[in-house]
């Protein structure tokens, strides 16, 4: 019984010592938590940028980020958004089933077969109406985080 009491008091002292040591350690500073290395309470002031000002039909094709990546939007989207199921200005130029697989300089890139309900491109798949979900306009900005991705 005395052994049990001795073991219990030793365990209690060990736990109390651990709690005391843990209380002495500092936590992570709030300016070391995220990628920005500023306080979580700071109000961010993002860098001002503008999207490319190219007009549609400017003929510029941007490189793809990787093989199979959706094409980037090389022109200004002012007046095109918001894109909704019933109002989609993109399809006015890009819905050209007869041009699928053909390259024509100065013409808009046609939507691929995957954007239609069947392989005959008879009607647009309405699950694909939100073009800017995959196809993004580009701006010349410095990356927030470094990237080592290789094509």
Name the helix and strand elements from N-terminus to C-terminus, one letter apiece: HH
Mean pLDDT: 81
Into which percentage range does the β-strand content fall? under 5%
Distance between the termini: 71 Å
The structure class reads mainly alpha
Radius of gyration: 29 Å
Outline, from the CA principal axes? Answer: elongated
Largest sheet geometry: none
Helix count, per DSSP? 2
**Poorly predicted regions:** none
Number of strands: 0
What level of helicity do the residues show?
A: 10-25%
Notes on the structure:
This protein has 151 residues and is mainly α. It has a domain at 52-141. It contains 2 helices and no strands. It is elongated and about 95 Å long.
Secondary structure layout plus pairing:
Elements lengths: L1 H23 L65 H5 L57
Care to give the gist of this entry?
The chain is mainly alpha-helical and 151 residues long. The protein has helices spanning 2-24, 90-94. The protein contains two helices and no strands.
Write out key terms for the chains shown.
single chain, 151 residues, mainly alpha, 0% strand
């Amino acid at each position: 019984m005395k052994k049990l009491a001795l073991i219990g008091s030793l365990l209690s002292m060990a736990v109390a010592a651990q709690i005391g040591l843990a209380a002495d350690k500092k936590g992570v500073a709030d300016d070391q938590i995220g990628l920005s290395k500023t306080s979580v309470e700071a109000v961010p002031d993002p860098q001002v940028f503008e999207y490319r000002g190219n007009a549609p039909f400017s003929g510029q094709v941007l490189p793809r980020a990787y093989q199979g990546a959706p094409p980037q939007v090389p022109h200004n989207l002012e007046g095109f958004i918001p894109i909704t199921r019933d109002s989609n200005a993109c399809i006015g130029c890009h819905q050209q089933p007869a041009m699928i697989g053909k390259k024509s300089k100065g013409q808009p890139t046609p939507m691929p077969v995957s954007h239609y309900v069947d392989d005959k491109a008879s009607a647009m798949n309405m699950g694909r109406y939100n073009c800017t979900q995959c196809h993004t306009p580009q701006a010349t900005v410095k990356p927030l985080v470094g990237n080592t991705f290789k094509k």
